[in-house]
Every structure is written in C-alpha cells, then in structure tokens.
C-alpha cells in the first residue's frame, strides 16, 4: 500500500502545484491583500455557522442511513463526521471516508463494513443532490455572453450524469429488493468476462448485504430532506462569503460555484484539495465578471472556511474520544486495502 500511496500522493501534489501556478501567475498581490482587507467578517462568521450546520445535517442523514442497523445518537455521529472530514483535509487518497467509518464502528460496536456501506449510499445521495442542483442552476441561470458553448456542454453533461445516477439508484434498489435475481442477471451479462464476474459478483453481494436501509416513508423523507438542507447550507455559506466582499449575485450563482467546487474535489490533488479547489472557484467567479484579485481572495476564504475550522473541530473531537491521528491514518489505510 505504501508504494502506491506515495505515487498517488506525489501525483496529487504535482496537480495541486500546477493549478496554484495557473491561479497566481497573473495576480497582483497588492490588490489581492487590499481585497482581503475589505471583507466584512460578520458574513464570514455567518458562513462558518452555515458550514457547521451542513456538517450537523450530515450526521442527521447518517442517523437515518443506519437506523435499521442501530439507533445511534447524534452525539456519536457528529464527532465521527467531523473527524472524517478533518482526515479528508489532511490525509491522502480520501482516507477520511474510511476513518469516519472506523471511528463510528469502534465507538458504537458496529461492523466497519456495514458502516462504510452506509457511507457509499451517503455519497450517492450527495451526488444525486448535486446533479439536481446543477440542472436547476443551468436551466435557470444564464451565464454571461461568450459562454454559450460551455453552458450547452454543461447542460448536456448534467442531463447525462443525472440519467446515469438514476440508473445506479435503480440498480441498487433492484439489488437490494431482488438480490439473488439481480446478481444472477449480472453473472449472465458478465459471462464473457469470467475474471471480472468472479470478483464483482461476491463484492456486490457483500456490499448490498451490509446495507439495511429503512423503507419507512418518514425515514426516506428524512433522508431526502436532510440531503437538500445539507447542500442548501453549503450554498448559503458561499453566498454569505460573496456578500462579505460586497458582491450581490443571484443564489443560483452560488449554486453554480458550489457545483464546480464539487467537481474540483474529484480531481486527484494534494490533501485538502489545494489548488484544484481554488482554481475551480476562481473560474466560476470569473464567469460573472468579478475582478481576478477579488476572485482569488474569495477562493481563498471559501477554501479556508471548509479547511481550517473542521480541522480544529476534528482535533478537538479526537482529543475527547482519546484517539490519535496516527492511529486513524493506520486504520484508514488498512481499511482501504
């Protein structure tokens, strides 16, 4: 694992450095500092409140994802969520997802595989919500002149991705409700590829066996409602930071920027998504005619809001839980392997 991890780590560092060079090569640093000095930090504090409200709602959604397994108090789910996001900011290869599962499993006496399966569904809810947000944004927000081709491409990509997500969700539903039949059908479809079939079919069976989603209407509504609120608060955080710089844009502009940031964190980069995150934010802001130095300043603040507070909160919960950061890294790496 160590060798592969080193390659991925240094590749991520290289990609981050590339985007940082792109970002700062034409920036006037005097104007950048001047822009940072003009910020109304009351809005930055409001953005911080929105950010942690979003994390809290993630813990609420996790509660309903695991409710069929065990009724776990938010007092356990929220610290594990914060620790997981802290680890994502500091550790390579997105080990935070494995850390998050490990912390909760150890605390509540659950099987780590079952907890991790719930996080896979958690990410599917995120992806589906973000794609819906992208479609709403693209079909209601008109990008500035000169971006019509990019807008058309984004709309087409958004619709295709939405349909793919619908297909994945439908497949998972069938896999859960008709496990034997669905796996048998997969086996027949993959018959020309025996090696793939031998690995994939048992993996799918194990994965779906670890998922025990509640089918109760109230629980499903809570999952959908919490997903919408998670991303509502995330978008409001971006909007508050824009207002802190005295920039008034429609809320759909903040949604558009947030979608770009989500895509940016999918690009391999250094821990904390440094470089890719900033560049995506900068390009999104530039689309609305915001001056370059101001755009970079906003990108720095938005990234800092998602980076430093959760790290501080994560170390606080590590201390309270009597866990070590090194131990989490080792456990996360072992789970990933």
List the helices and strands and how they pair.
Blueprint: H1 2-24, H2 29-37, H3 41-65, H4 74-90, H5 96-108, H6 112-140, H7 148-177, H8 179-189, H9 194-209, H10 217-244, H11 251-265, H12 276-286, H13 292-321, H14 325-336
Helix pairs in contact: 1-12, 2-13, 3-4, 3-10, 3-13, 4-5, 4-13, 5-6, 5-14, 6-7, 6-10, 6-11, 7-8, 8-9, 10-11, 11-12, 12-13
Number of discrete helical segments: 14
**Number of E-type strands:** 0
Average pLDDT, rounded to a whole number, is 83
Helix content: over 70%
Summing up helix and strand content along with how strands pair, one would put the structural category as mainly alpha
Explained architecture:
It is a single chain. The chain is mostly helical and 337 residues long. It contains 14 helices and no strands. Helix 5 packs across helix 6 (112-140) and helix 6 packs across helix 10 (217-244). It is globular and about 60 Å long. The model is unreliable at 1-5 (pLDDT under 50).
Provide keyphrases for this structure:
337 residues; mainly alpha; 80% helix
Gist of the model:
With 337 residues, this protein is mainly α. The chain has helices at residues 2-24, 29-37, 41-65, 74-90, 96-108, 112-140, 148-177, 179-189, 194-209, 217-244, 251-265, 276-286, 292-321, 325-336. The protein has 14 helices and no strands.
């Amino acid at each position: 694992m160590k060798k592969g991890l080193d390659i991925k780590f240094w590749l991520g560092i290289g990609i981050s450095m590339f985007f940082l060079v792109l970002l700062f090569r034409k920036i006037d640093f005097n104007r950048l500092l001047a822009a940072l000095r003009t910020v109304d930090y009351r809005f930055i504090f409001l953005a911080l409140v929105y950010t942690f409200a979003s994390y809290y709602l993630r813990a609420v959604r996790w509660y309903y994802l695991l409710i069929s397994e065990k009724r776990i108090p938010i007092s356990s789910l929220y610290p594990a969520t914060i620790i997981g996001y802290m680890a994502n900011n500091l550790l390579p290869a997105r080990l935070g997802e494995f850390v998050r599962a490990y912390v909760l499993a150890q605390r509540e006496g659950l099987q780590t595989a079952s907890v991790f399966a719930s996080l896979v569904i958690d990410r599917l809810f995120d992806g589906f919500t973000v794609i819906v947000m992208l479609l709403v944004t693209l079909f209601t927000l008109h990008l500035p002149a000169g971006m019509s081709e990019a807008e058309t491409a984004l709309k087409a990509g958004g619709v295709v991705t939405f349909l793919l997500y619908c297909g994945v969700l439908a497949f998972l539903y069938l896999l859960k409700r008709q496990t034997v039949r669905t796996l048998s059908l997969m086996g027949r479809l993959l018959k020309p590829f025996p090696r793939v079939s031998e690995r994939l079919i048992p993996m799918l069976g194990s994965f779906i066996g670890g998922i025990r989603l509640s089918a109760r209407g109230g629980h499903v509504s809570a999952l959908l409602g919490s997903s919408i609120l998670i991303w509502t608060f995330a978008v409001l955080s971006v909007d508050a930071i824009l207002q802190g710089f005295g920039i008034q844009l429609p809320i759909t502009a903040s949604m558009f920027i947030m979608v770009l940031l989500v895509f940016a964190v999918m690009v391999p980069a250094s821990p904390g998504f440094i470089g890719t995150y900033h560049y995506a934010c900068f390009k999104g802001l530039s689309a609305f005619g915001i001056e370059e130095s101001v755009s970079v300043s906003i990108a720095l603040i938005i990234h800092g809001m998602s980076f430093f507070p959760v790290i501080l909160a994560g170390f606080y919960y590590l201390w309270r839980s009597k866990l070590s950061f090194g131990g989490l890294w080792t456990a996360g790496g072992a789970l990933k392997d």
